[in-house]
Design brief:
alpha/beta; Glucose Oxidase, domain 1; four-stranded parallel beta sheet; 26 helices; 40% helix; EC 4.2.1.12; phosphogluconate dehydratase activity; Dihydro-acid_dehy_C
Length: 615
């Protein structure tokens, strides 16, 4: 199938603007790939240190037989339900390596925090920056330089982007990503959201709310909504970095261990020299575009408009929000998974999952099929669903949707576009995800109420002041502006705790929206939210000019985000400053002092909020 002209045009534009940085990156990849294996050439004392703790037979394989040695970087911990199953993976992978004359060592562990635990808490201010800390941890693990390949064990929000950024800085190595799968379905996401809204109104107490949350998040595995964690897994499938169909198999499913063992076999097949497929070559411009298309076609997390910009930069590739929006104009929405539908990821998988989506996009020319992947069959291998027959994995083509209320073909999509819109105007540049927002909420004009923190907005809701303002200002609504939430101000936390109160007001018929230089959770959706506003207020962005009472137009149809203030008045209006005590508090307690350098050096959201690139 010939590639769609818009997809090709975006790919060509990315390739052109990345020419110098990508060329420099590949030169480094090739130079490192041409070195002899370092375990064979380093000093005897170095080698002795590297193998001192491994079993005698493994020492023999590494030192005398000179078999492949695979590094394992793991994000295992017990706090993240999605990562708890990873505890047993290293032993499984080591066992599989030995069966093939190879060895494996845990090269290192990286931090992994659960955004669900830290939502609305001070710890959330470290969440975004944890991505770059994970990338650094990955580099520390692999910088021993004793590995012929590596496996990346991780699933959730910042963890996969961090592992991928770190991995791309070792782009000469073959690498495969290894997930753990989602938990089985519990209380539905819609029912959970209803209880949260009741709690926000004080109609149910903490006991009932906790009961609902425990019924929703009830077992090991990824949360079942299609947020950032599960979007990660979809994108890795589209990039050809998984064993095909690995994303959404439950942790205790009989296929899970087989797929984990297959990951070791897959990376060893590359290591054995059959194909030159190091991760730095796999992740090229076409691969990045495939990931962007998959995100749009499934209504995935807006967090990836930050994370995948950073991922691309790690491979010398430059993308921005214009690229996402242009792709969104031609990529149809094929999936309805919560929050842009009622289904959870288990229903998504049962209907055909990533395999069906990728097959449809390839057939329509909306994804590049001529790409390198960790499998020799190329991206076509990812248009399949794995199953177990007689104790062995087999892959079956995913050609038919098992539920057209969850997955639809390109010929009959839920929407002809990907539901992502770039907003521009005198308030800066922002993005809005409209795939989950009711059509009658795509255009909104209302007065602004400016808040300096999410706590201030929540207090206004609890006191009834927000609803009073909606009733009395003559516009039946409000645009809530929450500023000082960008990377430099406080680490750009997710503001998911604002969804229930705003959803309550919207449910009562008020026209409400959020404008912020912060982030929203990948689980947020039905309330219009212009997020990631860049430049952020602390960096002199125009959110520092807006005042309570200014009329604001949010038009997701034409892409406008505008304060309706006379141009001369707007130009002359001074920038507000963040309250001094608030700024000091952003850097105090719970380890936030350690991240002062991250806040100081962070680039804008549209530049990936990277802390490891100079301005």
């Amino acid at each position: 199938m010939q590639i769609h002209p818009v997809v090709q045009a975006v790919t060509d534009r990315i390739r052109a603007k990345s020419a110098d940085t990508r060329s420099a990156y590949l030169a480094q990849v090739d130079a490192l790939a041409q070195r002899p294996p370092q375990m064979r050439s380093m000093g005897c004392a170095n080698i002795a240190h590297a193998v001192a703790g491994v079993p005698a037979n493994d020492k023999l394989r590494i030192v005398e037989i000179k078999g492949p040695n695979v590094g394992i970087v793991t994000a295992y911990n017990d706090v993240l339900s999605a990562h708890a199953p990873l505890q047993r993976y290293p032993d499984i992978l080591k066992d599989e390596a030995r069966k093939h004359g190879a060895t494996a060592q845990v090269a290192g562990g990286v931090p992994a925090m659960c955004d669900g635990v830290t939502q609305g808490m001070p710890g959330m201010e470290l969440s975004l920056f944890s991505r770059d800390a994970i990338a650094m941890g990955t580099a520390v693990a692999l910088t021993h330089d004793t590995f012929d390949a590596a496996l990346m064990l991780g699933v959730c929000d910042k963890i996969v982007p961090g592992l991928l950024i770190g991995a791309l800085h070792f782009g000469h190595l073959p690498m495969v990503f290894v997930p753990a799968g989602p938990m089985t379905s519990g209380l539905s996401n819609n029912d959970k959201a209803k209880v949260r809204e009741l709690a926000a109104q004080g109609l149910v107490g903490r006991e009932k709310l906790l009961e609902a949350e425990m019924a929703a998040y009830h077992d090991a595995g990824t949360c079942t909504f299609y947020g950032t964690a599960n979007s990660n897994q979809m994108l890795l499938e589209a990039m050809g970095l998984h064993v095909p169909g690995n994303a959404f198999i439950n942790p205790e499913d009989g296929a899970r261990e087989l797929l984990t063992r297959e990951a070791m076999r897959t990376v060893l097949d590359i290591t054995a020299g059959k194909r030159f497929a190091p991760i730095g070559r796999v992740v090229d411009e076409r691969c990045i575009v495939n990931a962007m298309v998959a995100l749009l076609a499934t209504g995935g997390s807006t967090n990836h408009l930050i994370h995948w910009v950073a991922v691309a930069r790690a491979a010398g590739i430059v993308i921005d929000w214009n690229d996402f929006e242009q792709l969104s104009s031609v990529v149809p929405l094929l999936a309805r998974v919560y929050p842009n539908g009622a289904a959870d990821v288990n229903q998504f998988q049962a209907a055909g999952g990533p395999g069906y989506v990728i097959g449809q996009l390839l057939a329509a020319g909306l994804m590049h099929g001529d790409v390198l992947t960790v499998r020799p069959e190329g991206l076509a291998a990812y248009a399949t669903v794995p199953r177990v027959e007689a104790g062995q994995l087999v892959w079956q083509a995913a050609t038919v949707s098992g539920d057209d209320s969850v997955l639809r073909p390109v010929s009959a999509p839920f929407s002809p576009t990907g539901g992502l819109k770039l907003l521009t105007g005198n308030l800066g540049r922002s993005v809005i995800k409209v795939s989950a927002v009711p059509l009658d909420r795509h255009v909104l004009r209302a007065p602004a109420w400016v808040f300096d923190s999410q706590e201030a907005l929540q207090a206004a809701f609890k006191s009834g002041a927000l609803e009073d303002a909606c009733q009395t200002n003559g516009h039946n609504g409000l645009v809530c502006v929450v500023r000082w939430q960008g990377p430099r101000a406080n680490g750009m936390p997710e503001l998911h705790k604002l969804t229930p109160p705003l959803a309550v007001l919207q449910g009562k018929g008020y026209q409400v929206a959020l404008v912020t230089d912060g982030r929203m959770s990948g689980a947020s959706g039905k309330v219009p939210a212009a997020i990631h506003v860049s430049p952020e207020a602390l960096a002199g962005g125009p959110l520092a000019k807006i005042e309570t009472g200014d009329m604001v137009l949010l038009d997701a149809e034409t892409g406008i985000m505008q304060a309706e203030v006379d141009a001369a008045v707007w130009e002359a209006r001074p920038l507000a400053t963040i309250p001094a005590e608030q700024l000091r508090a952003n850097g105090r307690g719970l380890g936030r002092e350690l991240f002062a350098g991250f806040r100081r050096n962070a680039l804008s959201a549209e530049e990936g909020a990277c802390t490891w690139l100079s301005n």
